[in-house]
């Protein structure tokens, strides 16, 4: 007993004060009416100041507070072994998603030649994947909000795996069109892995970790190109489709290790399961669990579309929809334009090339050459510096400014393509443009889960992902069909869209830099850790909920 009292004397005591509803009044805290006096234990508490965004030290594991919330526990336990494992598993899902998307730029020209498809059917083969993704994004968000993040993620991955392998056996064009559409339907649920991942991260590490997960997207795209180089000349496109789906099988097996989100369990009333999950994380990280009773935020309906259009989130939702639309529209458009530009040699040669093949354009067949794969690999590698740049600036200038900067640089590089530059300069401009638009995409993935409360987080991310698929669905008709009519009009469309998206990023009403995830839409933004002392005149109300 004396040893326990001695240890208690050595522990600084930190009071977690949360904005929003509380079971105690400020007067109760000042008067000490509810404090427990222990003989021999120092009761005068010294205030402790933490730097902005700093994690709660492990020794401040909430030893004297009688209640705590999931976010308190996640902050106190901190980042450790559990999060590293989760990073690898989530990254595997993201890499598998990237491979399924990257295969579109390889499969289309191959089927164009082998099955002698008209150009519009080749474009439709790309668009149908995004139709499936667009139609399913909201559905997967609702499933995740109603039945759990892990459940929605497992179903979507198994769905994608099944139809991805099955599409390798498609006998005719109509079959592969339907099967790739069903693959896209499953891919629409993979972004829920970001929701699950973000809810296990302490505030200080969240942005950097989500961005590092995006490195796996770049790894997946690079791996797909290398796989195509090895498989296509010998085994053909059918084996490429089958082998590209195998990483999803590995993720499906590892998915059984994933725990359900503790935030979701608490909101669902399953506190025992949430506590078990938090204890598991604390054990793996070698950190203490907060003492006291786990409490929940005010219960509310989950997963309702109208929740995204409450007065507090209406403008945020609309602006985010346009930002996600512009991201996908520009990113996938650039991927398609890159092939066109490299085959022509430069921008100014495209019009003349189009005139030469106009009489036979629908049946012009060009297999991808070794040089095409090399150029595709170089432009894909640009996503690595894009993620690194975003990682460096996102916690310095904030999420909103990071997205705005990414859109502006992409727009500027698009305008420079108006000049008749050589092949080397063209490659550099495309490299920079893709690096920044991919970085802007990752910033959106950081911002969106942070801005919505737990009740609508998965639905908010799902609807944004759906709008992104609308942009990806439209972009083949701009980057391929409109390009045949006017190169410069095509560049103006992409540049103008990104300029508008940059403005939309600046007008987002909430900046989430340095703020915790919301448990409930009824609570204001933010959480403060404030030292509590017997002589404190009162507690200052946080202003972190103000919109910028």
Automatic annotation (TrEMBL):
Membrane topology (UniProt): Multi-pass membrane protein
InterPro entries: MFS, MFS_dom, MFS_sugar_transport-like, MFS_trans_sf, Sugar_transporter_CS, SVOP-like_MFS_dom
Pfam families: MFS_1, Sugar_tr
Domain Major facilitator superfamily (MFS) profile: residue ranges: 86-513
Gene3D superfamilies (UniProt xref): MFS general substrate transporter like domains
Start-end of Polar residues biased regions: 537-548
Gene Ontology terms: cellular component: synaptic vesicle membrane
Protein localization: Cytoplasmic vesicle, Secretory vesicle, Synaptic vesicle membrane
Molecular function, one GO term: transmembrane transporter activity
Keywords: Cytoplasmic vesicle, Membrane, Synapse, Transmembrane, Transmembrane helix, Transport
Keyword Plastid in annotation: no
Region span, Disordered: 519-548
Transmembrane segments: 86-108, 120-143, 155-176, 182-198, 210-231, 237-258, 312-332, 376-395, 402-419, 425-447, 459-479, 491-510
Family: Belongs to the major facilitator superfamily.
Name of the protein described by the UniProt record: Synaptic vesicle 2-related protein
Source species of the chain: Ciccaba nigrolineata
Gene this protein is translated from: Svop_0
């Amino acid at each position: 007993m004396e040893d326990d009292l001695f240890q208690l004397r050595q522990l600084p005591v930190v009071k977690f004060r949360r904005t929003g509803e509380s079971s105690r009044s400020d007067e109760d805290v000042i008067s000490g009416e509810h404090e427990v006096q222990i003989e021999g234990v120092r009761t005068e508490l010294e205030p402790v100041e933490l730097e902005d965004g700093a994690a709660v030290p492990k020794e401040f594991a909430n030893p004297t507070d009688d209640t705590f919330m999931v976010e308190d526990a996640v902050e106190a336990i901190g980042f450790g072994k559990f999060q590293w494992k989760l990073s690898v598993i989530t990254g595997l899902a993201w890499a598998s998603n990237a491979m399924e998307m990257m295969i579109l730029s390889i499969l289309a020209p191959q089927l164009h030649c082998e099955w002698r498809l008209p150009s519009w059917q080749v474009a439709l083969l790309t668009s149908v994947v995004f139709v499936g993704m667009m139609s399913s994004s909201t559905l997967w968000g609702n499933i995740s909000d109603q039945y759990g993040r892990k459940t929605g993620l497992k179903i979507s991955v198994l769905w994608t795996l099944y139809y991805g392998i099955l599409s390798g056996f498609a006998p005719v064009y109509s079959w592969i069109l339907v099967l790739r559409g069903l693959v896209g339907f499953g891919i629409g649920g993979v972004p829920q892995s970001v929701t699950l991942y973000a809810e296990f991260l302490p505030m200080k590490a969240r942005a950097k970790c989500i961005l590092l997960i995006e490195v796996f997207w770049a790894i997946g795209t690079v791996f797909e190109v290398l796989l195509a180089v090895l498989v296509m000349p010998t085994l053909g496109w059918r084996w490429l489709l089958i082998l590209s789906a195998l990483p999803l099988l590995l993720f499906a097996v590892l998915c059984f290790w994933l725990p359900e989100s503790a935030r979701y369990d608490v909101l669902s009333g399953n506190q025992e399961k949430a506590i078990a999950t938090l204890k598991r994380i604390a054990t793996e990280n070698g950190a203490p669990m907060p003492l006291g009773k786990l409490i929940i935020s005010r219960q509310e309906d989950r997963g309702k579309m109208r929740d995204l259009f409450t007065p507090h989130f209406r403008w945020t939702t609309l602006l985010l929809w346009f930002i996600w639309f512009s991201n996908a529209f520009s990113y996938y458009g650039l991927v398609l334009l890159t092939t066109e530009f490299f085959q022509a040699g430069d921008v100014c040669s495209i019009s003349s090339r189009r005139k030469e093949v106009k009489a036979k354009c629908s049946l012009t067949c060009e297999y991808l050459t070794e040089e095409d794969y090399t150029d595709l690999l170089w432009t894909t590698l640009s996503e690595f510096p894009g993620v690194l740049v975003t990682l460096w600036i996102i916690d310095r200038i904030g999420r909103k400014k990071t997205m705005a900067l990414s859109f502006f640089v992409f727009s500027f590089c698009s305008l420079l393509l108006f000049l008749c530059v050589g092949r080397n300069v063209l490659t550099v401009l495309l490299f920079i443009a893709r690096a920044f638009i991919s970085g802007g995409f990752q910033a959106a993935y950081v911002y969106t889960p942070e801005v919505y409360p737990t009740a609508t987080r998965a639905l908010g991310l799902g609807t944004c992902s759906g709008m992104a698929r609308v942009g990806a669905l439209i972009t083949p008709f701009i980057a391929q069909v409109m390009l045949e009519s006017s190169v410069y009009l095509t560049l103006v469309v992409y540049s103008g869209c990104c300029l508008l998206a940059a403005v939309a990023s600046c007008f987002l009403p909430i900046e989430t830099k340095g703020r915790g995830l919301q448990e409930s839409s009824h609570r204001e933004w933010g959480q403060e850790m404030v030292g509590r002392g017997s002589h404190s005149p009162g507690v200052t109300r946080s202003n972190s909920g103000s919109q910028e």
